[in-house]
Amino acid sequence: MTTDDGESWLGTVTLVPDGPVEVGSRGTWTLTYTAGRYGLDDGGSLIVAARQVADWGPPQTANPTAANYVSATTTADARLSVRFSPQAYIRPWQQGIIVMVVDGHVAPDDTITLVLGDRGSGAPGLRMQTFPERRFDLRVFVDCFGSGDYRPIPQSPSRAIVAGTATRLVAVGPSIVRAGEPTWLLVRALDRWGNPAPTYDGTVEFITAGPEVAVPDARQFRPEDRGCCRLTGIRFAAPGTYRLCVRDTAAGFTATANPCICRTATDAPPAVLFWGDPHGQSEETVGTGDVEAYWTYLRDSAGVDFGAHCGNDFQISTDFYAKLRDVVQRFHEPGRFIPFLAYEWSGNHSAGGDHNVYMLHDDPDRSPIHRSSHWQIADHSDADTDRYPVRALRDEMRDRDDVLIVPHVGGRRARLDTVDDVRQSPIIEIASVHGRFPWFAREALERGLKVGFIAGSDDHTGRPGASPPTNTGLICWGGLTAIYATTLTREALWKGWKERHCYGTTGARIIVDIDADGHMMGDEYRAATPPYFQGRITGTAPVTQIELRRGWDVIWHYDAMSASPPTWHEESVRCRMRVVWSGAESKNRNKVTNWNGGLTLEGGRIIAVAPYNLTHPAEGISEWDARQVCWESRTSGDEDGVILDMEVGQDAVIHFDTPPLRRVFPLRDIGAEREVVDAGGTDRQVELRWVRAEAGPLDVEWSYRDERPIAGEHAYWLWVTQADGEWAWSSPIFITVP
Q1: Which of 252, 267, 282 represents a domain boundary (last residue)?
Q2: Domain shared by 402 and 353, yes or no
Q3: Torsion sign (Cα): 461, 462, 464, 467
Q4: Whole-number mean pLDDT of the chain?
Q5: How far is Cα 121 from Cα 118, in angstroms, rounded to an integer?
Q6: Which of these three, 111, 130, 162, is where a domain ends?
Q7: Does residue 715 fall inside a structural domain?
Q8: Are residue 390 and residue 537 in the same domain, yes or no?
């Protein structure tokens, strides 16, 4: 059936108004389906589908006065049943509006009209998705005979989704450089939703950094920058820790870059720190944006040093894998940017769950793909190369030093009981846009697996390496992986992964240094004396907590946040408290917990309130006064919270009111130790603690000797927390104590 024939028989679709749509904006669009020669029988239906990662609306048909309302009418002698479903059709076009013909039929040339964001009863319209997309498709599928067999309308409508205007600047650069050598800084102008703003034309200049830093002149952004500008020619003359600042005076924007440690030119450090995002997908599988744009964003907009594209294998056709290989080869530029050829083995949880498979080499002979299945691939001519379950994949790749199989938690969480060779799987991923998964690290440690910890974005929105949260289930900022390596080459980074000389963060470029008797993170050794640890944390925000853990047990703790409780003999006291809620619904696909609610203070007054880690643009503190605070918040293993400045009496209580937990906390019962209450789910809890008014230091040098070591082999590692809620997890050092 040709396109013309298809339209003749199946029908046509129009969408008005035309033109690009700004991310996150609200509007009204009218979609009209004109029936073809088949018409639609009683029980026939059509689906207006968007990609499953689109965070529009979501559309709803129940309340004509509420946001995202969709109405439906027809010229036919029939009624319409209309509903929205997140699983209306086949991935990637899963979410959609289903319109069914009831008590009648739709004849040829009859119309069905959907008003997306109908404002007729006072509703505010439909919210568009919050990330740009060159072509946002509304795919229309029709079942003319009520058979359950849908056919695509040949010409479905689409619109360009464009970023908004800039609301802030962000700056990132290298973490370790040598004195006198040129380096760079990437400045991004971002809109409210975290997207680079291509219309930004402001002028940025460096705020004076002192005579020991040479910086370029002020630079005006150009149209070809598309909101991201790489400033070069920066030099540090003397060793030290630097945090470069840039500003746009006219717009009132200021940005401080991640810390950069400058070493003397004569130093010969064993490794430099490189940043990357090892995980994400494009539109060829279940994401958005094509694979060329994916790699361009990683390198030019996110400013990372390395990355990988890990599409679901059951959607990777032979042709796409060849294209992916070609793009990886073209983007490979040692010393500038290192792409890894990879894919996501996507078997069901019972068969092992999600594992990213990374290749050292990108030539066809040494980088075959062994899928979990061909579930969504039409060509089955190479189905004999599939390997299922994951143990079959492990057997296929046995004894290959140029392949890594990395368990992670996404939709199909990986099973760590299938890891039978840590040489194949020396690292696991414990953070992404899906959430934060310290429990995954704990399970690995309790199983005795000698693995390191990394993080990635698992971005599906065309923004790998700097991936903001969306309004679907991907509610966290994407993570990053840091690798200590000698040079920016594929081989050196691979060695850093294999030897676990790497760590993960929730997205901040925190510099984590841990040394045990001369051994760095990831190393294994036998201790002749009680292990001695030292290191330095160089933060992007004040460092509030450092935990040195042996296995899961905290054996040393740095705390620059907690305060002593008030002295209650006074009639009323001024104090500061942090209230934090965290955790996830489960370890499985539906992780997100709704914490929408608030707290009420009885026996005192709230003087000021500040958000803690409420970084999702659509969430935060909705209102507050002297007695209460209300918020909108969701978590997926991460922390959200508020910091309260209060004046309270000794009988003051906080009434905490959210769906997971409703509880009364008498403030006098909260001592120097934090108060923690379990809230079910996975690591879900509410924590109250007294905190200091002053910020902690940006840099912390630390040391500790484990004077009471436990005989046997143990994993020693760091969990770092900043005042802004960002986390970093070092890979363990594995120490055998006699």
Answers
A1: 267
A2: yes
A3: negative
A4: 97
A5: 8
A6: 162
A7: yes
A8: no
392 phi and psi, to 5 degrees? -65, -40
pLDDT in tens, 577-605: 999 999 999 999 999 999 999 999 999 99
Residue 3 in this model has a pLDDT that exceeds 70: no
Residue type, 560: A
Is residue 312 pLDDT above 90, yes or no? Answer: yes
Domain at 78, CATH number: 2.60.40.1510
Residue 269 CB contacts under 8 Å (≥ 6 apart), including other chains: 176, 263
CB 358 within 8 A of CB 369: no
Rounded to whole angstroms, the Cα distance separating 514 from 517 reads: 10
pLDDT, tens only, 15-39:
999 999 999 999 999 999 999 999 9
Give tens-digit pLDDT for 187-238.
999 999 999 999 999 999 999 778 899 999 999 999 999 999 999 999 999 9
Q: What is the pLDDT averaged over residues 396-416?
A: 96
**Distance (Å, whole) CA 242 – CA 221:** 24
Question: Is 596 a member of any domain?
Answer: yes
Whether 567 is covered by a domain: the verdict is no
pTM, 2 dp = 0.97
Average pLDDT estimate for 619-629: 98
Task: Give the pair of three-digit tokens for residue 67.
Answer: 């946001």
- List the structure tokens of 709: 């070591």
- 568 domain-assigned: no
Whole-angstrom distance, CA of residue 59 vs CA of residue 27:
12
> Residue 347 CB: number of other CB atoms within 10 A?
27
Parent domain of 672:
573-690
Are residue 282 and residue 308 in the same domain, yes or no?
A: yes
Q: Are 589 and 717 in contact (CB under 8 A)?
A: no
Side-by-side strand order, sheet with 158-162: 21-22, 158-162, 133-137
User: In whole angstroms, how large is the CA radius of gyration of the chain?
Assistant: 27
Instruction: Report the CATH number that the domain containing residue 521 is assigned in CATH.
Output: 2.60.40.10
Of 267 and 163, the structure prediction assigns the larger pLDDT to 163
384 lies in the same domain as 439: yes
**Cα–chain center distance at 40:** 42
Does residue 176 share a domain with residue 126? no
β-partners of residue 416 are none
Considering the chain, what percentage of its residues have pLDDT values greater than 70? 99
DSSP helix/strand/coil, 293: helix
Same domain (yes/no): 377, 441: yes
Do 177 and 254 share a domain, yes or no? yes
**Distances from the Cα of 508 to the Cα of 276, 281, 302, 618, 622, angstroms:** 12, 21, 12, 21, 26
Contact 69, 118 (CB under 8 A): yes
Query: Do residues 283 and 261 both lie within one domain?
Result: no
pLDDT higher than 60, residue 273 = yes
Please, where are the H alpha helices in 515-644? none
Give the strand pairing for 682-690 and 675-678.
antiparallel
- d(CA 432, CA 417) in angstroms, rounded, equals 22
**At 390, is the pLDDT very low, low, confident or very high (cuts 50, 70, 90)?**
very high
